Amino acid sequence: MNYDYLLYLAIILMSTKLLGLVTRKAHMPQVVGALIAGLILGPACLNLLHSSTFLNQVSEIGVIVLMFMAGLETDTEELKRSGLASFVIALLGVLVPLAGGFLVAMACHVASPELSASELMQNIFIGIILTATSVSITVETLKEMGKVSTKAGTAILGAAIIDDILGIIALTVITSMADPSTNLVLVLLKIVGFFAFAVVFGIGFFYIIQKWVALDPKPNRRHVIMTFAFCLIMSFCAEHFFGVADITGAYVAGLVLSHSSKREVIYREFDTVSYLLVAPVFFASIGLKVELSSMSASLAAFTLLLLAVAIVTKILGCGLGAKIMGYTPKESFQIGIGMISRGEVALIVANKGEALGLIDDKLYAPIVVTVVITTVITPILLKAAFKDKKRTAAA
Amino acid sequence: MNYDYLLYLAIILMSTKLLGLVTRKAHMPQVVGALIAGLILGPACLNLLHSSTFLNQVSEIGVIVLMFMAGLETDTEELKRSGLASFVIALLGVLVPLAGGFLVAMACHVASPELSASELMQNIFIGIILTATSVSITVETLKEMGKVSTKAGTAILGAAIIDDILGIIALTVITSMADPSTNLVLVLLKIVGFFAFAVVFGIGFFYIIQKWVALDPKPNRRHVIMTFAFCLIMSFCAEHFFGVADITGAYVAGLVLSHSSKREVIYREFDTVSYLLVAPVFFASIGLKVELSSMSASLAAFTLLLLAVAIVTKILGCGLGAKIMGYTPKESFQIGIGMISRGEVALIVANKGEALGLIDDKLYAPIVVTVVITTVITPILLKAAFKDKKRTAAA
Predict the structure, then answer these.
(1) Structure pTM?
(2) Which of A22, A179, B122, B207 lies 20 to 30 Å from B149 when distance is taken between CA atoms?
(3) Which of B208, B263, B206, B226 is nearest to A17 (CA)?
(4) What is the CA radius of gyration of chain B?
(5) Residues of chain B contacting residue A225, judged by C-beta atoms under 8 Å apart
(6) What ipTM was estimated for this complex?
(7) Residue of B59, B227, B268, B276 to mutate, interface with A, max A Cβ within 10 Å
(8) Which DSSP category does B150 fall into?
(9) Rounded to an integer, what distance in angstroms lies between the CA atom of residue A72 and that of residue A250?
(10) B10, B240, B277: residue with CB nearest A273
(11) How many alpha carbons fall within 13 Å on the CB side of residue A44?
(12) pLDDT tens for residues A110-154?
């Protein structure tokens, strides 16, 4: 047996925390330091750690726990009120980056004649990669600032869920064009099916756990353990049976339990597991995936352009959606900022595209860099956007 | 990416807890239910789950966290007082099972003429497998009963550490006879080296963390994270540089921090990570390793005999050692019971023996069954042994 993973885990825990403290001293969220820790340790810099199955799986549990906690914290009344607004924000937040990514790919002629798909399809695919918002870093930053249940925070969470679904639909449309075995109608039915399942299973579980808690209302480990199992099952079913992201399942599980009388206890226990083990691994593992050795000058230029478009199109698209739906300019800007971050979803989409012959190997580095940098700057910009507001409110 | 591990984790969390509640209702420790959960889910019964790299690594973190917490709870003054006693208990607790295992193997003619090692060596090796006590289940049971810092509890913990070292020496002696590349003197020097390293690194870390805590004495996540990193580094170094079990490293890390002013906070936070994620995986994964399909009738008879000898020789050996060192008959019996459990160490030793041509493949099932059943009955017997004492004290 190889025990290296114990050392890796120790290095991740120490470096994410120490760099987190450094970034906090510099008035940035701690999560920025944690992401930078991964970049420094990984192949992009010191080449000390590499992503492994173990780190990937612990990291996945990390993001599931974070999304579950975000669900627990969500004010569902506010979410219902902001439902239509979230939809409009998400829709524009998908369409504008899709168009932007497509145009950049066209302008830079990145399509490879060696691939099976047409040039047009390859360029559209770059656009699709830019659509997927990864809200987990935003959630962590909002949590750090205590802003999850603000109006803008709730709109971001709602929009991120819908964004995830729109992203799946977009991916499905293009892959169904590249791969005749995918059935678009079936995919849409499965998404509807997931929400039906979540409602039935969620209400059933909620009813059972509340009855159980009523038998012995003092804080009991068994209830927390069962909620964790429920969260994992929702995550698994979302991916396995419905083709929906596991983190969406985890978020919905959190939403269900946000109405529980045990909400605070559950939150506190998950918070410990999160900060002490799974969340640092998640943050570090994003940076660990970056490899820069394959970068040429023209590719570096494309990377910068892609990054700029990724940032600007989300702020514009989501911000415009929010403005249309009656949010203040300040809130619209906060919402746009909160949606910039791309994460594991973009990487999964890129992986899938590579497997289907829709993008070239060499485009993987620009995509990873875009994911990491949008993820690193989101908390910085978000903190600035919310701080400004506070100052205005005080004035 | 395959998401099955999320489902497996959910199944493990639910089944270990539910069966734990059942065994508690039946006046047995919850850990028995958790072990049985693994047996039922694994290839021995339902064949629903299998041990995987992910489960093994999370399980290893689980046992490390358990041993670290045992160290945190240990009364080091009592440990110092019981040092010589622990040594005598451990020594007899190694010699008696070694002789017993050897005699059973001789009597049953289990040695295989196809293996490179002589019949004598193969029989001695069965004895060596029986020497290794795995104290983690005992620790969990003592914790559940609140008996870790009793006189018997401290003697068990001390003896288990020394037992681990004696087991390593015995393994090294036999492997050095089977494999000329092993150097016995070097192995002994490394064990001494580990304790020297632990003292220097431990005191250094303790000094730094106490200084850091003094800067900001309120409960702070950073301190807990750093102690976890320290625990993992000690575990890694023990295995990697000194050939000592990782759980010994974790226990020593806990001992160091048992003197910290933050002891309670650290304990509470690790307890949450333990019960909510890593400990259930550890308990379940023991049962998951059992496969019974390869059992013949004569092998089943050998299994029963080996099991009986494993139990009786530890009670006799350790109990006699404790009696010699002046413990009461009751305490001696408790100590003997507490040392019955064989665990991952016996499995590691068996693995090593297989690789070196010292035991036959077919003996793996009897060994695993012995490990699992000694592990399952230890908490049951232990609870009985301690309960009896309480009744006497009350009378």
Answers:
(1) 0.85
(2) B207
(3) B226
(4) 21
(5) 13-14, 17, 275-276, 280
(6) 0.84
(7) B276
(8) S
(9) 10
(10) B277
(11) 23
(12) 887 877 777 888 899 999 999 988 888 888 888 888 888 888 998
